[in-house]
Amino acid sequence: MKVSELRQMSDEQLAQVLKETREALFRLRVQAQTERLDAPSELRKHRRLIARILTIQNERKRQQQAAGAQSTK
């Protein structure tokens, strides 16, 4: 999933994708420990997707805080 696609999502959609990705990463980690993992690169893809989502969420939070600080002045 590209960053531009993630930025177009609402906060609720981002939270849902984050939850699903974390669950998928957990399953991949368990699979990697218990049996042979078919595509080890999937671990990296999921970790990076989680990082992208968290980055976008933090950017939005900072923008909201900055807008709140501007409105109180």
How would you characterize the overall build of this protein?
With 73 residues, the chain is an all-alpha fold. It has three helices and no strands. It has helices at 3-8, 11-34, 41-72. Helix 2 packs antiparallel against helix 3 (41-72). The longest helix has 32 residues, at 41-72. It is elongated.
Report how far apart the termini are: 39 Å
**Strand percentage:** under 5%
Order of helices and strands: HHH
What characteristic shape results from the CA principal axes? Answer: elongated
Structural class of the secondary elements? mainly alpha
Radius of gyration: 16 Å
Tell me about the largest β-sheet.
Answer: none
Topology, number of strands: 0
In short:
By secondary structure, the protein is mostly helical.
